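Researcher: Structure prediction, please.
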Amino acid sequence: GASAKYTSQTCHVCGHVDSESCTSRDKFICTNCTRVFHADVNAAWNILYRAAGNVVLRRPGHKEGYKPTPSMLHCIQKSRQKRHECTAEAVYFCI
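Model: Predicted structure follows.
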């Protein structure tokens, strides 16, 4: 599994690590890019990115694999929010 170490101190958008970014139990404000998130949601994205680092995706009909990028993961998240199926091909064209 993916390590949860420093996920609550790392901005999932810019990657900056700072213990002062997690201002409360619920609020995360990045001291670098100033983006604001719910602390648990930010940490969950970091865990997802770490776990995805161990995944290799393959496009239909292709033998070569590739690592999912944050933009691909964002595409998957958007499709889940809209309750649409997000295929590997759809993710490929999303970036």
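Model: Residues 1-54 form one domain.
Researcher: Thanks, that helps.
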